[in-house]
Amino acid sequence: DVMKELLGLRTLEEQVEQKLGVKKVLVVAGNSDEDHWVKHELGRASISELKTKREPNDVIAVMGGTTLAAVAEMMTPDASMRDVIFVPARGGLGEKVENQANTISAELATRAGAQYRLLHVPDQLSEEAYSSLVLEPSIQDILKLIKSARVVIHGIGEANTMATRRRSKDTFMEKIEREQAVAEAFGYYFNREGMIIHKQRTIGLQLDELDKDKYVISVAGGESKAEAISAYMKYRPSDVLITDESAARRLLEIE
Ligand code: G3H
Question: Is residue 155 within 6 Å of ligand 1 at its C-beta?
Answer without folding.
Answer: yes
